[in-house]
Amino acid sequence: MIKLIEKHCRWLQIQNLPLILSVGYILFFLLVISNTVTKDSIDLYGKAVWENGEYWRLFSFVLFISVDPLFIFFTVLLQWTFGTALEQTYGSIRFTLFFFTALLSAIAASYILPNARFEDSFSICVFLSFALIFPEYTILLFFIIPIKIKWLALLTWIIIFFQIIQTKGSSESIADALVIIIPIALFFGKEVYYKIKYKTRKTIV
Q1: How large is the greatest C-alpha to C-alpha distance in the chain, in angstroms?
Q2: Long-range CB contacts (< 8 A, 24+ apart) of 61-64?
Q3: Could you report the per-residue pLDDT of 40-86, keeping only the tens digit for each?
Q4: 3-state SS string over the chain?
Q5: Which residues contact 198 (CB under 8 A, 6 or more apart)?
Q6: What pLDDT does residue 128 have?
Q7: Which residues in 171-201 are b (16+ Cβ under 10 Å) and which e?
Q8: 70-74, 190-194, 197-201: least confident range
């Protein structure tokens, strides 16, 4: 299905999307810290979109990450690195469709749960997808501690599912998890499945 869409929807392709998103992260960071816009006005809040016509939220939410300069620096650096690697590995059209799937998943969730607020989820999708495809990739945590990305990804998954447990399976926490899981499963689930199957078979043999 994905390959069919790739073949017939190449007009959707956005070249250098990781770079565009990185610039967007920085731009929205500057807009918020300068009080030009507020975080509350750019988050994806279904009620504000569907009842008040604040349609810019359908796109603005994916470009804001944090007001912490250090966090922004690391996020932009890593997202640019990981996003570019995924784009080069799978092609610009697939990465673009991956982005739109994550975007539409969050938008659908905001329509189903109009009173819930959704923040950027695509940067997390990129990070977790990269970790699934390149689990042995090593980064220097705080530029000092070498750590394989698969362990950071595992910690992220634990946090995601802990939030569901902590909120006793609230609709909002489940929706937050699904808008991350759905794009990853659709675009990289099959490859990861076969990779695990191959390793398991190799271990048995």
Answers
A1: 61
A2: 61/106, 61/118, 61/119, 61/120, 62/21, 62/102, 62/103, 62/106, 62/120, 62/121, 62/122, 63/21, 63/24, 63/25, 63/27, 63/28, 63/120, 64/25, 64/28, 64/29, 64/32, 64/39, 64/119, 64/120
A3: 888 898 888 888 888 888 988 888 887 888 888 888 888 888 999 99
A4: CHHHHHHHCHHHCCCCHHHHHHHHHHHHHHHHHCCCCCHHHCCEEHHHHHHHCCCCHHHHHHHCCCCCHHHHHHHHHHHHHHHHHHHHHHCHHHHHHHHHHHHHHHHHHHHHCCCCEECCCHHHHHHHHHHHHCCCCEEEECCCEEEEHHHHHHHHHHHHHHHHHHCCCCHHHHHHHHHHHHHHHHHHHHHHHHHHHHHHHHHHC
A5: none
A6: 93
A7: ebbebbbbbbbbbbebbbeeeeeeeeeeeee
A8: 197-201
Structural tokens at position 12: 């959707």
List pLDDT tens digits, range 177-187.
899 999 998 88
- For 16: left if phi > 0, alpha if psi spans -120 to 50, otherwise beta; the answer is left
Structure tokens at 161: 């599912």
pTM: 0.83
Cβ atoms of residues 49 and 112 within 8 Å: no
Structure tokens at 155: 């910690």
Structure tokens at 64: 């804001």
